[in-house]
Design a protein that fits this description.
Largest sheet: 7 strands, mixed
CATH class of the largest domain: Alpha Beta
CATH topology of the largest domain: Rossmann fold
Mean pLDDT: 96
Structural class: alpha/beta
Number of strands: 9
Strand content: 15-25%
Order of helices and strands: HHHHHEEHEHEHEEHHEHEE
Length: 290
């Protein structure tokens, strides 16, 4: 069998798995190709697709596909994830970055670049640190902070920052904004958060690839509607944002209207939403009044 044949067979097997959220059919093929690239040690080319694997490579690929069928995320199997051209290490017990968060990072970068003087960004519930690292990497003179309640997450963030040579980002173990330096109050240009927005009662219906492979605290804040941390951050935004500063929230599209209402209720202004390339609302924004 050629690599192409193995990919077709693997994609079909992944599509049959009940442990995976098949929200887009083409993702099964994408998963198979990502794992094949790991086996080959390079990106797939037309020539490679028509080649054959050595026996050891076939065994490794089969093992990886079996893990994926069981629900284990591709990034965790591979041990890394490419986010806005940054190769981030991932590990079990820390929330795995999502491609969808590239939009959140992009919005934060655009907002920060509009500032002419000191540029300060804070990413809350930073996880592996993709948003904070991307903002710091693309806004070289930015002062970027990432906070997370998980010590394992912050350890991994710092490791990624050191390995990538990103020096203008700082990570702290913190319950929301509690551990930030007090002199940042009233100076932050951009607050970002990809909150754990699964409602407490919906945990049981999550697919296995999420329920069994992500830490519970990165999935839910324990609230009935999934917006507990959003309410806290929206209330705290007035103290930490500079006048005109923006809060950016990545959220499930089904929570878009409720999130907008939450930001308005907290007194934030110019509340708006941004859609991704698929036309799905992903990021809700609100500003501290000037």
């Amino acid at each position: 069998m050629t690599v192409r044949d193995l990919l077709t067979e693997a994609a079909a097997a992944i599509n049959r798995s009940r442990s995976i959220d098949h929200w887009q059919p083409s993702l099964a093929r994408y998963d198979a190709e990502e794992l094949m690239s790991e086996v080959l040690g390079e990106r797939l080319t037309p020539e490679l697709r028509h080649s054959q694997l050595a026996a050891a490579q076939r065994r490794r690929f089969a093992s990886m596909i079996a893990r994926r069928i069981a629900g284990e995320p591709v990034a965790q199997i591979a041990g890394h994830f490419l986010f806005r051209d940054l190769d981030l290490r991932v590990r079990r017990g820390v929330f795995i970055p999502r491609v969808s968060s590239e939009l959140l990072a992009g919005e934060a970068i655009r907002a920060l670049r509009r500032r002419r003087n000191r540029r300060v960004a804070v990413d809350v519930a930073t996880g592996t640190g993709p948003v904070a690292l991307a903002v710091a990497h693309e806004v070289k003179d930015g002062d970027v902070w990432g906070v997370d309640i998980s010590r394992a997450a912050i350890t991994l963030c710092r490791d990624n920052a050191r390995r990538l040579g990103i020096r203008n980002v700082h990570f702290r173990v913190s319950d929301m904004l509690d551990a930030l330096p007090s002199d940042l109050r009233g100076t932050v240009d951009v607050l970002t958060i990809h909150p754990p927005y699964v409602a407490r009662g919906d945990l049981r219906i999550l697919p296995r690839e999420i329920r069994d492979y992500e830490p519970l605290q990165s999935l839910t804040d324990g609230s009935d509607d999934g917006l507990g941390l959003v309410r806290r951050l929206a209330a705290d935004a007035h103290e930490w944002l500079r006048p005109g500063g923006v809060l950016l929230v990545e959220i499930g599209t089904y929570l878009s209207r409720k999130t907008q209402a939450t930001l308005r209720h907290a007194g934030l202004t110019d509340v708006a939403w941004t859609r991704d390339s698929l036309g799905v609302t992903r990021v809700i924004s609100g500003h501290r009044p000037r």
